[in-house]
Amino acid sequence: MKKIFRNLTTAFVILAFSSCSNELDQKPVIGDxxxxxxQQDPNAAKGLLSRMYATFALxxxxxxxxxxxxTTDAGESGFLRGIINLQDFSADAMxxxxxxxxxxxxxxxxxxxxxxxFFRYLFDRVYYTxxxxxxxxxxxxxxxxxxKALYISExxxxxxxxxxxxxxxxxxxxxxxxxxxxxSTPLPEATRSQLxxxxxxxxxxxxxxxxxxxxxxxxNRSVCRMLxxxxxxxxxxYTGTERYNDAxxxxxxxxxxxxxxxxxxxxxxxxxxxxxxxxxxxxxIADALTSQSFGNTTYLVNGSLNSDTMPLSFFGANQGWGGxxxxxxxxxxxxxxxxxxxxxxxxFWTAGHSFEMNDYKVWTNGYPSTKFRNTxxxxxxxxxxxxxxxxxxxRLADAYLMYAECVLRGATGGSISQAxxxxxxxxxxxxxxxxxxxxxxxxxxxxxxxxxxxxxxxxRSDLIRFxxxxxxxxxWPWKGNAQNGTSIPDTYKLFPLPLTALDANPNLxxxxxx
Length: 514
Description:
mainly alpha; two-stranded antiparallel sheet
């Protein structure tokens, strides 16, 4: 059983704060009683830490109908659901047909506005998690509870992870720290570089304080290093200064010191028992009974199924929402799906569906992805309404591809021969043919990242880093709200700040072009 979400009852009571209508002006609301509870109850600190991990996997404290942030539909407000909406639907491979307020803007990468509720959900999620982790850090610092230093380091990691998405998606925000938490005046706007520098300093500070191994689902040293490597991989985008040498340093530490290995079978990483995979570095935990959410992987599994064209129980589900389908920009990377030996090419449902997505609102246009499923890889399964498949936010195959990309971009400390070995290890695992060193170029890497990592919340960031997201040099179905794709402006490299955030803090300014 997955146990990271234990001891949550006390945590839910303590953290029953108001939701994030005023997320940029959070103040301590518990004070001495909070510290006393932590000191007196040996389970309270770990329960509260679990609650902070849960902010990335669940929508709220009281089941799938609750939310930590203000929303009319709790199920829409989860952290992972927001990441998938903003990172995958806005890019080339995945599209959604529901047409909900704001989803069409993402699916067509067009007409983005500050009133889009899905931008607000992710923004509010960050500014729910950041103040809560900060409040807990401050309280723990005034106690002598067992494992205090470890808990604080993990909380600093979770706060950094939330800030990472602020840096990537919005490029600015406010910087809430233990030094300014609880101030009565609105905090100043922090630039992308300021947020970057803060997250970098936090991760460097806690790297060696985190253990080499930790309980499943909790941050360890490799998890911290993986986030550092992600930060450095995109430093050229975030700050204007490339840091591929640093990215290679930390991703190499993950590979050589973390003790992870590729799962023998690709599908093991996306099944309901993927907690047994040796490849998953950091998961967002899901359980059909104890951690139900309409976000997390339930959104990926159920959203990609429809009983009209697919057998739900085959994928461990008893609900099909009929929303998500991939486009030829993804499955086209595999060539002919019928003859491909690549196991990843078989994870699309083609029966009853058309290759072309002539209308993204028609379910049978495009192929649903069956990469994520709610069946166990190694044993019998029972179909359930919610998913028990953990989401692999970080996994080793990504680290291998990051290593190869860094080497190709000129980073020192690695070798092209090692990069080729890592890439071919990934391909061999899936039954794809190996490549020669002459084939290992950056254009190959962005395509291989698509074959290996799509629907895992990386695609938009990858395309931006490779210079393929905006402009018209690379088109995909429905880019710019055109069936065959059209050019979009560079302003779309960032999302607009939500109007609610601008209203809450007059120091914030809107991103250019919105």
